[in-house]
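tool=predict chain=A
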Amino acid sequence: MDYRPTLHVFEALCRSITAQQLSGKAAATIYGRFRDLFPVHIGVRPEAVQALTFESMRSVGLSRAKTTAIQDLAEKTISGVVPTGETIHELSDKEIMDRLTSVRGIGPWTVEMLMMFRLGRPDILPATDLGVRKGFSMLYEKNELPLPKELLEYGERWRPYRSVASWYLWRVLDLEDGILPPS
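tool=predict ok
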């Protein structure tokens, strides 16, 4: 799995909000412009975001909704709702989910991706993820996608490594695309 640990939860979530509903290239371009609003020695930090105007954030390509979401994220980070990189590891998956989904624009899927790929949590099953559902359907030769509830029930057998199982389900889609592992 491509685990990229972070101490900067705020910045990782800003990147996730920016990327929602965009291609990878468009998201990278807009996030790069957003990051360039901050002096290099400060970086993307909640206090620095609060110092920006709504218009300056919009000028780099952020939608109104994403600008509002990032501003809410900054406010909730400063108030302590969003944990820091130092403290987030002390929280349970449920505590992280509850705290982060209280931020406008951050839903369960975003939190699951953060927990898997930035926090290295081993037992996350993003049952609403289309790729995971498609991979399951292909692997188990089902004619229909499993409902998230069904996938969660089946996934109980993969505990405590559901993150790894999810990664393999995504890789099943590579087989469909003709990307075969080396023999």
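The chain has two domains: 9-117, 130-176. The mean pLDDT is 92.
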